[in-house]
């Protein structure tokens, strides 16, 4: 009898919380969004209310359509990277879609077992600068001449300088994506390096989409993942992994990220 009572208490404790037991209850998770991370997360004000959209939000919507038992509430305010990671660590936020992986983060958070999408640090040039359309090595870039531009706050230029330190290719950090495009088209920079999604989104947003080429050379390739706080039970993480596998196998993930990450 005592064991039966203890089992009942355990089940009741589980079921009144935000996580499920084994009876098909809904799984309630609060999700966070990164500030200044277009097109992964984009915010717009409509009728006095902030609406968050973007590539990761499309993935969230596809995820919930596939598994309606997940009730994912996206916070209405996008947060700077350090604050969002703090919220994830203290379980104010339980899940974030679209996070790069590194050793330190793996110690603090739980990662999905497959990535959401690939990410490339790519270079774009002007479509009329045909001399450099073929560039596929840093040595070729050095011989062709020109400055590499990057966005302030991104680590793209730091990565580039570490990888090409022996070549002494000139670089310049510029405050915004729009200013980088304007500088390149004014002839004060030959290459613009950033993640492929933000390059394409910026080109569309600021009217340069039909005037650029993405060259074969890639600075770095990686992935963005689905990440959970350590407080989220393994059972929930495993359920989410199963959903991601379904989205991957059906081609739904690819359909979303290729629309944002490829020059058509």
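-> sequence recovered:
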């Amino acid at each position: 009898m005592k064991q039966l009572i203890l089992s009942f208490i355990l089940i009741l404790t589980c079921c009144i919380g935000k996580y499920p037991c084994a009876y098909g209850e809904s799984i309630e998770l609060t999700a966070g969004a990164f500030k200044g991370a277009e097109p992964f997360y984009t915010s717009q004000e409509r009728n006095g209310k902030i609406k968050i959209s973007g590539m990761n939000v499309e993935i969230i919507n596809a995820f919930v359509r596939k598994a309606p038992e997940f009730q994912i509430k996206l916070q209405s305010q996008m947060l700077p990277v350090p604050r969002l990671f703090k919220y994830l660590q203290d379980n104010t936020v339980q899940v974030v879609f679209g996070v790069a992986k590194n050793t330190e983060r793996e110690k603090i958070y739980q990662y999905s077992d497959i990535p959401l999408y690939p990410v490339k640090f790519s270079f774009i040039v002007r479509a009329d600068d045909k001399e450099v359309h073929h560039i596929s090595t840093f040595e070729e870039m050095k011989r062709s001449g020109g400055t590499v531009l990057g966005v302030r706050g991104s680590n793209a230029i730091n990565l580039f300088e570490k990888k090409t330190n022996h070549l002494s290719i000139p670089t310049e950090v510029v405050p915004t994506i729009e200013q980088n495009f304007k500088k390149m088209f004014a002839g004060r920079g030959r290459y613009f390096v950033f993640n492929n999604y933000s390059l394409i989104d910026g080109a569309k947003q600021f009217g340069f989409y039909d005037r650029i080429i993405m060259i074969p050379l890639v600075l770095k390739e990686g992935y963005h993942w689905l990440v959970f706080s350590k407080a989220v039970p393994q059972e929930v993480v495993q359920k989410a992994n199963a959903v991601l596998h379904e989205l991957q196998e059906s081609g739904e993930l690819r359909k979303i990220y290729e629309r944002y990450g490829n020059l058509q």
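Confidence is low (pLDDT under 50) at residues 1-17.
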